[in-house]
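Page 37, continued from 36.
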């Protein structure tokens, strides 16, 4: 993400945007084997053109393809950001295990941190009645999702899919006035959260993921686009360790993942890399989230030019004050969430402006790119999601008028 002289705040979002019913149906048919990849591939350019046009019409500056190349076969989907990698990595064997029931087997993990099943999260234990009540809104309409197992050497097989994502975004950008575009790609740490029956140690596993996913990072940045590294594992995995570890042990576990990511990013210009940290996309209480104060310094060691993080989420909205005591390194930018993906309430533009101004007062107005907390697609009704983008843009305009 490069700095420009627009004299205002430029807006963006985290990645996933709502799919149309037609695209969801195409995704479903492809996943169920009713159509081949070539048929889906031929339909994607039109869908991507539409969503880039929608972003431009709303006024979003730094746009993407809506993550439309990441298969999402249902309107509510919390896992497409991760599941897409299953079809782009070799060394995986299909499994019948629901990822909410399976347990990851980690070996020789730093700090002896072992991730439990998704259903054993500590937040879920505390609020089990709410999590298991389909009317509570916590995990309504969750579609069971199977995850594969690692049974052989990991390697990247998604060259055609990545090239399709790149070509579709480039064509849509050209058709809608150009500008800066980004594509989301999975981090090594998050890619490593599948069951492992092959690698002897956690370190071997994470670095194998880094070597494989590096090919996708290189393809995206080599095409002149920005790669967004999606890495909820940095923060979210804390809740998936049961019983609760010490912060020191967890940071040792997480540091390995950061080091592997930097290894995967070696040689890539930092201005073409932005990193996304979040505490997960489900609409739960999140009382067991790890506080950002434990992660901020580690995040800033990642070789990225910009850092995206949740800041509108009511569990983390107070943490903007951390930037008083954690100076932003020279040449870096922050991409704070100023509208949330976890509530149907559409933020007032004045609130959005206030949040932007808070960050600008601490890191400098030129270093703030207002954004969403996380992806909106698959988490919110499309009409609400697009209203939130409109509020984001309106709030950024108000803040720009005040500060530029």
């Amino acid at each position: 993400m490069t700095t420009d002289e627009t004299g205002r705040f430029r807006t963006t979002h985290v990645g996933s945007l709502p799919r149309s019913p037609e695209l969801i149906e195409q995704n479903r048919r492809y996943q169920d084997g009713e159509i081949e990849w070539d048929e889906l591939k031929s339909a994607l350019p039109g869908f991507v053109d539409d969503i880039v046009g929608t972003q431009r019409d709303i006024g979003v500056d730094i746009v993407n393809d809506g993550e439309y190349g990441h298969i999402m076969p249902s309107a509510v989907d919390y896992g497409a950001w991760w599941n897409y990698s299953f079809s782009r990595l070799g060394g995986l064997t299909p499994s019948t295990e629901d990822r909410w029931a399976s347990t990851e087997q980690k070996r020789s993990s730093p700090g002896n941190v072992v991730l439990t099943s998704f259903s054993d999260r500590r937040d879920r234990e505390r609020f089990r009645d709410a999590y298991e009540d389909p009317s509570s809104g916590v995990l309504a309409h969750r579609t069971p999702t199977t995850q594969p197992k690692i049974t052989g050497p990991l390697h990247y097989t998604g060259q055609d899919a990545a090239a399709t994502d790149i070509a579709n975004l480039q064509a849509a950008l050209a058709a809608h006035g150009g500008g800066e575009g980004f594509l989301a790609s999975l981090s090594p740490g998050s890619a490593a959260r599948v069951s492992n029956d092959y690698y002897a140690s956690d370190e071997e596993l994470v670095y194998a993921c880094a070597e494989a996913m590096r090919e996708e990072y290189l393809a995206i940045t080599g095409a002149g686009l920005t790669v967004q590294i999606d890495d909820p594992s940095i923060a979210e995995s804390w809740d998936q360790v049961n019983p609760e570890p010490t912060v020191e042990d967890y940071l040792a576990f997480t540091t390995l993942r950061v080091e592997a990511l930097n290894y995967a990013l070696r040689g890539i210009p930092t201005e073409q890399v932005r990193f996304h940290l979040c505490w997960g996309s489900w609409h739960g209480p999140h009382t067991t989230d790890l506080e950002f104060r434990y992660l901020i310094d580690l995040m800033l060691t990642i070789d990225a030019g910009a850092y995206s993080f949740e800041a509108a989420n009511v569990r983390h909205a107070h943490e903007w004050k951390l930037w008083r005591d954690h100076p932003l390194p020279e040449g870096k930018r922050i991409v704070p969430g100023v509208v949330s993906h976890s509530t149907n309430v559409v933020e007032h533009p004045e609130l959005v402006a206030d949040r932007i101004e808070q960050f600008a007062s601490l890191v400098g107005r030129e270093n703030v790119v207002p954004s969403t907390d996380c992806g909106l697609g698959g988490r919110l009704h499309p009409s609400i999601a697009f209203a939130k983008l409109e509020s984001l843009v309106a709030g950024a305009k108000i803040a720009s008028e005040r500060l530029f």
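The mean pLDDT is 92. Flag for discussion at group meeting. The chain has one domain: 21-403.
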